[in-house]
Structure prediction request, 513 residues.
Amino acid sequence: MSEAFYVTTPIYYVNDEPHLGHAYTTILADVLARYARLRGAETFFLTGTDEHGQKVQEASQRRGIAPQAHADEMVVRFQQAWKDLHVEHDDFIRTTQPRHVRVVKAILQDLWDRGEIYLGSYEGWYCVPDERFWTEKDLKEGNCPDCGRPVEQIVEPNYFFRMSAYQEWLIDYITAHPGFIQPDYRRNEVLGFLRQPLGDLCISRPVSRLSWGIPLPFDSNYVTYVWFDALINYVTAAGYLSDEDRFDRLWPQALHLIGKDILTTHCVYWPTMLRAAGLAQPKTVFAHGWWVIEGAKMSKSVGNVVKPLDLAQVYGVDAFRYFLMRDMTLGRDADFDESRLAHRYHGDLANDLGNLLHRLINMLGRYCKGRIPRPGEVTSDESALRERCLVLVPQTFAQVQALALNEALAQIMSVIGEINRYIEQSAPWAQAKSGQLERVGTILYHAAEALRLTSLLLQPVLPERVAEIWHSLGWQTPDSLKDGLTWGQLEPGTPIVTGPPLFPRDIERVLET
Ligand code: ME8
Prediction:
């Protein structure tokens, strides 16, 4: 294996219902992982759920069941959604799993033993009727943001991680490693934040207020603050303290995909925690933008939450995946508009890709007895087409590795357009009329082989549709898809298979936009 590739999503709060935003990050990770597998890299794709904390405790209390039982029920919604969206993760971590609890406790104990954690006092605002703590900036006009009642300032003993000691080191590290936080405007945002003095991080909650968390190994009257627990999932799953060889291979290659909402936790808390624990940094933290609806962030209270599975049911899962990857410039916000999804569906997918397969299968049936023909002598047109497809392979991998997925897809689709034009210009129907059957075979072989190879580069985004293309062309996929990335794999004489349209046109829109 040439190299390792380790990609993670945030672990989502188990109480939420998976929506377009969660689906986006997870499909993005899936697509990147599939490209890495296609390149032949040792690939590890991790997602999961964040299961401790106040909200889970409260929700389970309302239902009158234990928090673990509540989480066990809730987690299924994420697991099922990823399955339905053709997400092939290698691991799904839950922060309540013993493998994770063990690592969190080991790290806490080690930091405590080495004086990186100390007992101090936490000052904050407390809403007595709600039994909730708020920070100064949470307050609405000085009152509880939830119920609007006055809050009391309280002082409570708590444990702190000496985060402030790492401020200078972190600034230097970020400056010396320009690829660490991406895109660059997010790196600048973090460096801007670090111009203010960095405080220490309160990492505990007293059990009297919150019991649903990982107990501090050195003081059973406290549980671990949920972010200090959650971030550690990334090293737990990579094999830290369980499979050190694997951990050493994967960890330096880690790519954390996150939304821009959780930049500080991943770019300030996490690097300093790792540093204090004596661990290396992940390779990259990449913060993508928001999917917004008419300029507003999706939220349950505004009632503009897009349910990914509703759309996937109408347009098909693969078309939905294609749209998300094609229409967001990674990093920037993107406005979700179903008419744009419909436009991509009819244009790129049905007209360009679906139609290419459809025409080819028809012509192979009509002129080549329903079999892959044997190519004869080639002209410069065939050589150019072959060359274009072969060059596309490294170009696509380079763009994907630079996380320019929308550009990679635009380029692949432009080659699909070139295959369509090659057929137009070579006019196999006219050649057939004048009895040039060998020429017809040469043209159709090249067009079919070009489609096979180009569609392999679309497979990470459209896994099911592309498998149908290969089935129609009678291509026996190799055990490792990487071996399919050369020219000339369609076997002359193989029967082709006529199937239903790849992207049927009679779909109805679900949302009124
Ligand atoms: O923050 N557009 O979990 P979470 C794009 N448990 N992406 C979006 C989005 C939107 N409108 N809405 C959500 C947490 N996301 C913590 C993470 S990690 C150690 C702990 C995606 O359930 C995006 O990836 O609130 C964002 O960062 C994540 O969902 C937040 O998920």
